[in-house]
């Protein structure tokens, strides 16, 4: 004998209410989740850039030899496109080229996302055996411009000190030493 239990199934109006509430939560939640993931991606990339600059300087001091960080072209020459893969290598002869007798120590993958811009006002970041940058000073910046805009800048002094730039004007982007915002992708 078939028995029917009452109150065990959804009625149409309850189902519609559940679907509407789910749609509202998804409408609010998905953009918030995307902002969260973009923010985390930016934080990871910023931390990775800081680590590779610190690694370059520390390696120069530890090995008592010039160590260089730069984007390389296919021939191993340093170029000025900081969205390319970045390489750290012992640059014994200070020629801004990864020669056959020099070792590549580490690298960071290229940035292919058009919402991201890495930039430096030179073609190399290089430290001598004392950890001094000398004439290889400048500002290495990172900017992600998507649902959020997040950026960072690392300012490298002649004595090799690496410090973070600050957002002095509260526009969510740090400024370069000249007071201008870090460069961001055109959007």
Explain how this protein is built:
It is elongated, with a radius of gyration of 25 Å. The chain is built from one helix and eight strands. β7 (149-156) and β8 form a beta hairpin. The strands form two sheets. The chain has a four-stranded antiparallel β-sheet with strand order 3-2-1-5, with helices on one face. Strands 4-6-7-8 form a four-stranded antiparallel β-sheet, covered by helices on one side. It has 187 residues and is an alpha+beta fold. Helix content is 28%, strand content 22%.
- Count all strands and give the number: 8
Give the strand content.
15-25%
Silhouette:
elongated
Element pattern in H and E: HEEEEEEEE
Low-confidence stretches: none
- Mean pLDDT across the residues is 89
Side by side, the strands of the main sheet go: 3-2-1-5
Strand count, sense and barrel status of the largest sheet are: 4 strands, antiparallel
Radius of gyration: 25 Å
Structural class: alpha+beta
Number of helices: 1
Task: Give the N-terminus to C-terminus distance in angstroms.
Answer: 68 Å
Q: Which percent bin holds the helix content? A: 25-40%
Fold topology:
Blueprint: H1 12-63, E1 67-71, E2 86-90, E3 104-108, E4 116-119, E5 125-127, E6 138-145, E7 149-156, E8 162-164
Antiparallel strand pairs: 1-2, 1-5, 2-3, 4-6, 6-7, 7-8
Transmembrane segments: 12-33
Region (Disordered): 167-187
Family: Belongs to the GSP H family.
Brief characterization of the structure:
By secondary structure, the chain is α+β, with helices and mostly antiparallel strands. 28% of the residues lie in helices and 22% in strands.
């Amino acid at each position: 004998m078939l028995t029917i239990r009452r109150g065990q199934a959804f009625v149409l109006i309850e189902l519609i209410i559940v679907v509407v509430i789910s749609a509202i939560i998804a409408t609010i939640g998905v953009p918030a989740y995307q902002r969260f993931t973009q923010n985390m991606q930016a934080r990871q990339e910023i931390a990775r850039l800081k680590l590779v600059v610190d690694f370059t300087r520390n390696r120069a001091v530890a090995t008592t030899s010039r160590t260089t960080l730069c984007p390389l072209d296919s021939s191993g020459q340093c170029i000025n496109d900081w969205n390319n893969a970045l390489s750290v290598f012992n640059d014994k002869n200070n020629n801004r080229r990864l020669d056959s007798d020099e070792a590549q120590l580490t690298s960071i993958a290229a940035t292919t996302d058009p919402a991201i811009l890495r930039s430096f006002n030179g073609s190399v970041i290089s430290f001598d055996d004392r950890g001094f940058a000398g004439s290889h000073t400048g500002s290495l910046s990172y900017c992600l411009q998507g649902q959020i805009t997040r950026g960072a800048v690392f300012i490298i002094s002649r004595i090799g000190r690496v410090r973070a730039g600050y957002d002095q004007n509260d526009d969510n982007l740090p400024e370069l030493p000249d007071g201008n915002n870090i460069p961001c992708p055109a959007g």
